[in-house]
TrEMBL record:
<dbReference type="InterPro" id="IPR036188">
    <property type="entry name" value="FAD/NAD-bd_sf"/>
</dbReference>
<dbReference type="Pfam" id="PF07992">
    <property type="entry name" value="Pyr_redox_2"/>
</dbReference>
<dbReference type="GO" id="GO:0006103">
    <property type="term" value="P:2-oxoglutarate metabolic process"/>
</dbReference>
<feature type="domain" description="FAD/NAD(P)-binding">
    <location>
        <begin position="7"/>
        <end position="307"/>
    </location>
</feature>
<dbReference type="Pfam" id="PF02852">
    <property type="entry name" value="Pyr_redox_dim"/>
</dbReference>
<feature type="domain" description="Pyridine nucleotide-disulphide oxidoreductase dimerisation">
    <location>
        <begin position="328"/>
        <end position="434"/>
    </location>
</feature>
<keyword id="KW-0520">NAD</keyword>
<dbReference type="GO" id="GO:0004148">
    <property type="term" value="F:dihydrolipoyl dehydrogenase (NADH) activity"/>
</dbReference>
<dbReference type="InterPro" id="IPR004099">
    <property type="entry name" value="Pyr_nucl-diS_OxRdtase_dimer"/>
</dbReference>
<dbReference type="InterPro" id="IPR050151">
    <property type="entry name" value="Class-I_Pyr_Nuc-Dis_Oxidored"/>
</dbReference>
<dbReference type="InterPro" id="IPR023753">
    <property type="entry name" value="FAD/NAD-binding_dom"/>
</dbReference>
<comment type="similarity">
    <text>Belongs to the class-I pyridine nucleotide-disulfide oxidoreductase family.</text>
</comment>
<dbReference type="InterPro" id="IPR016156">
    <property type="entry name" value="FAD/NAD-linked_Rdtase_dimer_sf"/>
</dbReference>
<keyword id="KW-0274">FAD</keyword>
<keyword id="KW-0285">Flavoprotein</keyword>
<dbReference type="GO" id="GO:0050660">
    <property type="term" value="F:flavin adenine dinucleotide binding"/>
</dbReference>
<protein>
    <submittedName>
        <fullName>Dihydrolipoamide dehydrogenase</fullName>
    </submittedName>
</protein>
Length: 445
């Protein structure tokens, strides 16, 4: 016999997108249920982004001789830390009086979802079920030797050596992490550059740092096949050579988590996503899809923003409107890279002329006081002096980029920024310095 319960909104998927949507809706007065198939938190809070950053942060600014101690400390406390994190997520949801259901349920139709013996009825659904790692047939993930980020984040099981398949953001952050804790790392990237889609001068310091940690980076050659030997993975590359390590981490492919029973609704899917309109509605007028599952941009802050915007629509009828082109991006390595707006390669591709300014953190008064040696800010402006892009490399730069997308969205000019005071002495003065310079530089393109 089924029990039936009615909600205003049901969120399917307790990752970062689902978590924020559920809380915003509940705080706005809606009666909300959250359904999670596995563990709350999803990739960002439980299986990837946040744990990776926690480990990387632990190694910031420390001396070489402290590495062993920090590593041991992290490993001993790792299980406990994750349990604390999980408890925090659950408590926040329960404090908000959100009903949590665990299990792999299914759509009955566009208004009803079945989970165990419970039928949940609702006015709106938000699908936020994310994606999971995938691979090619000849590189089969077994979770032991050929692993994904879910196993790679488990610090209680660190290999002596690892091959990272993919020099993308995920691959390069794991390369930095593993190299710091003393693992022999090989990165295989089939394109000619790691962190593809970023200007060479931004990638260069990160690549140099990885090399200084003895990371071997093989570029321009893909991985074709992986075979598991005795405690070893042998990876055959496109040029016929073989590289070998204790484990291989696959980062180059993901596949969508479609909820069961989707065929009982009018929701349309493609091979890799749920298809949504610009306002994030599916082909059902009461079912939204947010975060990685809609394939728009696979980043945690995109999932959060989409969740908040959809919630605003449900609560207050505010149209969903998101400017993806001014969302900030970051790579959490040593040093970090962060920025917003256009990069040079994009402007060159579009034949858009621009002016460039570069200023170094070490040349600012605060940089001098802090003994900062590395890092710079690169500003890109148009011929009308409007800001097109602000990019940075250096320690903690992900913290400075914050709301700068708004400057680009509002089409602010260099003069408008220069007439606003920035704290002295601070490292953000380097941004002013770069902007000042870009104004007077010659036009490129
Ligand atoms: C290693 C790594 C590092 C990353 N670092 C960053 C970073 O620094 N910054 C950044 O912006 N992004 C980062 N990302 C990307 C970011 O984690 C994702 O964009 C984000 O997690 C997407 O959130 P989501 O809520 O859409 O999906 P997910 O986080 O995937 O959450 C989906 C949830 O739905 C659940 N679920 C799945 N199917 C069902 C079902 N049928 N029923 C109920 N529940 C279900 C899952 O168990 C999961 O809990 C990183 C990704 C990885 C892999």
């Amino acid at each position: 016999m089924y029990k039936v319960k009615k909600y205003d909104v049901v969120v399917i998927g307790g990752g970062i997108g689902g978590y924020y949507s559920a809380r915003v809706l509940r705080n706005g007065g809606k009666v909300v249920a959250l359904i999670e198939k596995d563990k709350l938190g999803g990739i960002a809070l439980r299986w990837g982004a946040l744990p990776v950053k926690k480990i990387l942060d632990s190694f910031k600014g420390i001396k070489k001789e402290q590495i062993k101690e920090i590593r041991e400390n992290l490993i001993t406390k790792w299980d406990d830390d994750l349990k604390k994190l999980e408890k925090k997520i659950i408590n926040n949801l329960l404090d908000d009086e959100i009903d949590i259901y665990y299990g792999d349920g299914e759509f009955i139709d566009s208004k009803r979802f079945k989970i165990g013996s419970q039928i949940i009825e609702t006015d709106y659904f938000i699908v936020a079920t994310g994606t999971k790692p995938a691979s090619i047939k000849d590189i089969p993930i077994d979770g032991v030797n050929i692993i994904t980020h879910k196993e790679a984040i488990d610090l209680t099981n660190i290999p002596k050596s690892i091959i990272i398949l993919g020099g993308n953001v995920e691959g390069i952050e794991f390369a930095a992490l593993y190299a710091k804790i003393g693992v022999d790392v090989i990165v295989i990237e089939k394109e000619e550059s790691i962190l593809l889609g970023n200007d060479e001068d931004l990638v260069f310091p990160i690549e140099e740092n990885l090399k200084s940690l003895n990371v071997k980076i093989i570029k321009g050659i893909g991985a074709r096949k992986a075979e598991i030997g005795k405690n070893r993975v042998n990876v055959l590359l496109d040029d016929g050579s073989i590289v070998s390590a204790e484990k291989a981490l696959v980062t180059f492919m993901r596949t969508p988590n479609f909820p069961k029973g989707i065929e009982n609704t009018k929701i349309k899917t493609s091979k890799d996503r749920i298809i949504v309109r610009e306002d994030l509605l599916t082909d059902e007028e009461n079912i939204f899809a947010i975060g990685d599952i809609n394939g728009i941009l696979g980043m945690a802050h995109v999932a959060i923003q989409q969740g908040i915007k959809v919630s605003d629509y449900i609560l207050r009828d505010i149209p969903v409107d998101i400017s993806y082109e001014v969302l900030p991006r970051a790579v959490f390595t040593f040093p970090e890279m962060a920025g917003v707006g256009k990069q040079e390669w994009e402007l060159k591709k579009d034949n858009t002329p621009y002016k460039l300014g570069i200023a170094y953190f070490k040349d600012s008064w605060r940089g001098w006081a802090k003994n900062i040696e590395e890092g710079f800010v690169k500003t890109i402006i148009g011929l009308d002096n409007k800001i097109l892009g602000i990019w940075m490399v250096g320690e903690n730069v992900s913290e400075y980029i914050g709301l700068m997308g708004q400057l680009i969205k509002e089409e602010r000019t260099v003069d408008e920024i220069l007439s606003n005071l920035i704290i002295h002495p601070s490292l953000t003065e380097t941004i002013l310095e770069a902007l000042l310079q870009s104004k007077n530089e010659k036009v490129i393109g």
